[in-house]
Amino acid sequence: MSESNLKSMNELVSLSKRRGFLFQSSEIYGGLASCWDYGPLGVELKNNVKNRWWKAMTFREDVEGIDASIFMHPTTWKASGHIDGFNDPMVDCKACKARYRADQIELTKPCVTCKAEGQFTEPRDFNLMFKTQMGAVEDPSAMVYLRPETAQGIFVNFLNVQSTMRKKLPFGIAQIGKAFRNEISPGNFIFRTREFEQMEMQFFVKPGEQKDWMEQWKELRLNWHLGNGLRKEKLRWHPHGENDLAHYADAATDIEYEFPIGWGEMEGIHSRTDFDLAQHQKFSGKKLEYVDQMDGNKKYIPYVIETSVGCDRAVLALLCDAYRLENEGDKDNERVVMKFHPSVAPIKAAVMPLMKKENLEEPARKLFAELQQHYKVEYDTSGSIGKRYRRQDEIGTPFCITVDYDTLEDHAVTIRDRDSMTQERVALDQVKKYIQDKFGF
User: Fold this and answer.
1) What fold, for 9-72+146-319?
2) Of 68, 240, 251, 272, which is most buried by a Cβ count within 10 Å?
3) How many other β-carbons are positioned within 10 Å of the β-carbon of residue 83?
């Protein structure tokens, strides 16, 4: 497979708009900064990623799934440290009022926006959580937060899941959900946004066993990304040094992908010790200890291995990795093709009658209906067959299936492969099996 030759994020933004992967949120009103809507193809791609993650995480004996509420009791965020410590140092330009993270600019230089010199305010902390009111009356006691992470919904449900599902250590709890952070400097398409989706799993282990389990989960998580079709040379480990560790962690490693903007974190694997459960036990007054029947009914607070994937970043990596511009400058042969792995491709196959003729559309529609029971399939009749091929290449459809006049005689169709552009004649009643054999699912 040829190398991705995506030159900038702007190329991807343009393709995403043109082909229905992502749109600027509220575009008809001028858009809302760093907010994006997933279009028809984007939501299929994202759902494929989420479904693969959910299956990898919960289709196993030792992990259960939940879906916790976005709104949580405010004390949750006091216990987790988000109210007191979830801050970025912020400065404002006195001249143009532009706001910056103090650690990302040089305060001795002119303002990036208006070029004014010596106009910055003193750095002050800026909490990244969104606040809102719950109830009909605005009152400080009704203050709640949009969750800045999904992990705390898992921790407060530790005993609920453990007791109802009769789980013994080690076991995990997984969930997929929205989180919200009032980032000062969001951007780079969907890499950093204020509303995003996380795919997180907290794996509870006996204290002292966390190192071995962390190594196991590191290998499993890297293999999951490779299974999505990402190239190994575009992925790397980024271990956190002692000075980089979060206060709750005794070890942490990121899986990074090389985006057009440089290497960026896509997933974190963290050993969170017993910090979260101990804090919630302290603030709630509820015992969150595990009774280890295999160790003389010894009671202890489990340690936790966390795997946390930014779903939107995983989607962005797939878009970047799949992008190819082939035969650039050759107006007859140039094509943009998204070489998605079939497991994540939004559309698995396109059925195309050669012409809009009833005798061709009848078998084409029948084949389409059959395939649609098993895969997301598109029925495409608009334009010449060549233009349809190019359109399907650009959205990453692995196979184009053409029903032509020979089909009426030999009851076979032509299947074109997206990557090699080779064509093969396959009997109508064997098309489903042909695709299943090629995909492996």
Assistant:
1) BirA Bifunctional Protein; domain 2 (3.30.930)
2) 272
3) 16
